[in-house]
């Protein structure tokens, strides 16, 4: 993609926690696939869903339905396990984002160690790419991780923004700016290697602008915050507001750059 600062920033909406609410009681309500349709109508460019080993939120049936019922790209977040590889190869989502996964964690804690796990990850990247699935690695804003992603043959990296968001929430201005600089530098480095750059984790209305103005970032993936806001304003409204903030930040970046 050329002219990074001039293109529209894509929004991927993660619907995992609609499924979390459904699973708290069982049954079929609320339906995450219905949430996916609403998100698309409100301006989402794609849908993200994480099929975990313990199926705590998204289920196999959800992935099967999403694969055939939505008319936007599906980004399947998955651990690098044989079970998840088989599911991805069967459903052939537009993209597969390989993430670290620990059974006891509440949410994904930090980025994947692509450098340390290079040999293990090679087969997964190769088999997914081999049938046309775009492979993304969810990694920290570090050059060694970007180098590993490029070496593995991944087409995309998704930079973990959780620490930046935590520092912003804590009111640590200097720490927030240092972390944002780290993300900026990593995004520029990744793009120089020919990698497409995405970002996500913990982004809110208050923090999305800082990441949205980074010219090399072409997609943001946001989930938990939007589902939480939907309780108060509705999912349509939450997605539209996030879309508007992202677009305004990108326009501002383009006009300044």
Automatic annotation (TrEMBL):
Binding of 3-amino-2-oxopropyl phosphate, residues: 14, 25, 202, 223-224
Top-level lineage group: Bacteria
Annotated binding of 1-deoxy-D-xylulose 5-phosphate, by residue: 16-17, 52, 57, 107
Example of a GO cellular component annotation carried by this entry: cytosol
InterPro entries referenced in this protein's UniProt entry, alphabetically: Aldolase_TIM, PyrdxlP_synth_PdxJ, Pyridoxine-5'_phos_synth
Gene Ontology terms, MF aspect: pyridoxine 5'-phosphate synthase activity
Site (Transition state stabilizer): 158
Enzyme class, UniProt record, top EC level: transferase
Pfam families, alphabetized: PdxJ
Subunit structure: Homooctamer; tetramer of dimers.
Protein name: Pyridoxine 5'-phosphate synthase
């Amino acid at each position: 993609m050329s002219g990074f600062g001039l293109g529209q920033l894509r929004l991927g909406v993660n619907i995992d926690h609609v499924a979390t609410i459904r699973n708290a009681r069982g049954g079929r309500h609320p339906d995450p696939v219905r949430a996916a349709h609403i998100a698309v109508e409100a301006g989402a460019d794609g849908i993200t869903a994480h099929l975990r080993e313990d199926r705590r939120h998204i289920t196999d049936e959800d992935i099967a339905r999403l694969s055939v019922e939505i008319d936007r790209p599906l980004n399947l977040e998955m651990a690098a396990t044989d079970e998840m590889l088989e599911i991805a190869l069967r459903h052939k989502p537009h993209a597969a984002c390989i993430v670290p996964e620990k059974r006891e964690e509440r949410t994904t804690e930090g980025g994947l160690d692509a450098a340390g796990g290079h040999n293990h990850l090679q087969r997964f990247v190769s088999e997914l790419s081999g049938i046309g699935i775009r492979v993304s690695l969810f990694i920290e804003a570090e050059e060694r991780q970007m180098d590993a992603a490029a070496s593995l043959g991944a087409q995309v990296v998704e930079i973990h923004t959780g620490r930046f968001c935590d520092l912003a929430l804590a009111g640590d201005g200097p720490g927030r700016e240092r972390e944002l600089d780290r993300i900026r530098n990593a995004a520029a480095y990744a793009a120089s290697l020919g990698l497409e750059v995405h970002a996500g984790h913990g982004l809110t209305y208050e923090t999305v602008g800082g990441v949205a103005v980074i010219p090399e970032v072409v997609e943001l993936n946001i989930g938990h915050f939007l589902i939480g806001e939907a309780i108060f304003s509705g999912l349509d409204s939450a997605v539209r507001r996030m879309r508007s903030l992202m677009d305004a930040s990108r326009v501002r970046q383009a006009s300044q750059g």
